[in-house]
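Tutorial, part two.
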Amino acid sequence: MSNINTLHIIGTDRNSKRVITATEEEIINNALNQEEQGIEPHYAWIDYQTRKPLTPLGWLVWSTWDHGCGIVYRREDGKMIITTGVQGDFGYFYGGQVI
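Running the prediction step on this input gives:
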């Protein structure tokens, strides 16, 4: 079971002298804030053969060249799930199509 206080490395400062981290709680709260602001979820793991999403659509929380990206989506049971990977692992979906 995941600990809500687990840290994720989400970047470094401009001089790469300081690591920027976020707890799972902060990451999930960022997605919830986006949802409250009316931002629609558009990102998901992509199946490159079918070009369809493999997960429900979620919100982009971070994306950096060196540290990949983090997407948060809501499962059918309402639980928020954090997925991490590199930018090529995810697709941006709009109107049922990957863009």
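Residues 7-98 form one domain. In part three we will examine how such features are distributed along the chain.
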